[in-house]
Design goal:
alpha+beta; five-stranded mixed beta sheet; 11 helices
């Protein structure tokens, strides 16, 4: 299995400048390769430039621009070209499926924040000074950079990446590991129901409150964005010091909210994995749930539209994004795989409208958001707990139907 590690780097001033130069030059390579593909498609009978063709030109590019492109790792430049090739592959896949294509765009230096190295030892070396008590990572053209390694790296390093977040630099490692020993069996199974009022309700009647990190930071974020809006829009090189500070303040607040969501998701998922052998959850289509409602034209007045609840739906979409269900489910599946637990997604249809006692299904069973009262047998409980119970039962049925 593959596990990722992310460590903070502590470069010197000169090393920080070299890292920024590496990002800048890889960004130039990415944009030049994109421009070549655009020109070939538009002016040479719609011909296609492939990754292999562009990778074959790297040797000449490095020789022509030895002061910039020639000082960086050949494999990292190949990884940048592969990154562009993946963007085009995703573009053509969306075209074939009928989705919004989203043609690959040019990247500014501020939006190009990652450089990948395909193999440890090819342009980079993790823990390059093993006899030194301080962990270091070596990059071609940069040197030996100190790393704050807060945990041990287990397994064989497959890839190494450099990532910039604001003014901080991180190294991201992908390590191949043997499957760890599973956690001791608990004999417990649980169903979970994700929501907005409560982040999570389980089939045992417990609730995990929704921290609403985005809403709590909304006031500070609004003030920071208002301060940023007072500056005219300019390119990064033309920004004043005050403008740059305002930009960094907004980005810093967004990063803090993202870290808080990740921390909450990790802790919640870890608690579930340690306590239960089997976990069932709803197979939510989060991207579809977050879409804005389609406009409704007024047939009696051409050019005007009827109310479609877009304002209320926008608030719901913000709450869904703030909860971070997708991130949580991804982390839950990863931790369950490492711990030898089983996680199954089930169809969420009518899980909160079906009575767990008599099986009667009706929308009248849920008169309010929190209350469940069966109109057939009179059973009443919290609606999220009822949903979690039905999710657990559906998950157990699915597991028994597919024992493999």
């Amino acid at each position: 299995m593959i596990r990722a590690y992310k460590f903070l780097m502590r470069p010197t001033v000169r090393q920080g400048q070299a890292l920024a130069g590496m990002l800048h030059d890889h960004c130039l390579l990415y944009n030049a390769a994109l421009q070549e593909r655009r020109d070939a498609y538009r002016h040479v009978s719609k011909s296609t430039v492939t990754y292999g063709m562009q990778s074959a030109q790297l040797k000449e590019i490095r020789a022509f621009d030895a002061q910039r492109q020639g000082r960086w790792s050949f494999s990292s430049q190949q990884a940048t070209l592969r990154r562009l090739d993946k963007a085009f592959a995703a573009f053509f896949r969306r075209v074939r499926s009928g989705d919004a294509p989203g043609y690959p765009r040019f990247r500014s230096v501020n939006w190009f924040d990652t450089v990948d190295f395909r193999r440890d030892g090819d342009g980079c070396r993790w823990n390059s000074t093993p006899h030194d008590p301080v962990t270091r990572v070596r990059f071609q053209g940069v040197g030996h950079v100190k790393v704050h390694r807060h945990r041990a790296v287990v397994g064989r390093i497959k890839t190494v990446s450099v990532k910039r977040e604001g003014r901080k630099w991180f190294v991201v490692l992908a390590a191949e590991q043997d499957r760890p020993e599973p956690l001791p069996a608990t004999g417990s199974a649980v169903g979970i129901d994700l929501g907005i009022a409560n982040f999570l309700a389980d089939s045992n009647g417990a609730f995990v409150p929704n921290p609403r990190h985005g809403r709590r930071a909304a006031g500070k974020l609004q003030a920071a964005q208002q301060a940023l809006s007072r500056f005219p829009r300019r390119k990064a090189k033309d920004r004043s010091a005050g403008h740059q500070r305002a930009v960094e303040k907004v980005a810093q607040l967004h990063r803090k909210v993202r870290r808080q969501r990740l921390d909450h998701a990790h802790k919640t998922a870890l608690g579930l994995v340690r306590a239960h052998d089997f976990i069932a959850h709803e197979d939510l289509k989060i991207r579809t749930m977050g879409k804005a409602p389609a406009p409704r034209s007024d047939p009696g007045r051409p050019g005007t539209f009827l109310p479609n609840g877009a304002l209320a739906k926008a608030g719901l979409n913000r709450s869904i994004s703030d909860a971070g269900w997708g991130v949580f489910l991804t982390i839950l599946h990863a931790k369950a795989e490492s711990a030898g637990r089983e996680v199954i997604a089930v169809n969420p249809r009518n899980t909160s409208r079906t009575c767990p006692e008599c099986g009667h299904t009706a929308k009248e069973n849920r008169p309010t958001q929190e209350k469940f009262h069966c109109v057939s047998c009179g059973h009443h409980a919290h609606a999220d707990t009822v949903g979690a119970l039905n999710v657990l039962r559906a998950g157990l049925v699915r597991r028994n139907a597919n024992p493999a």
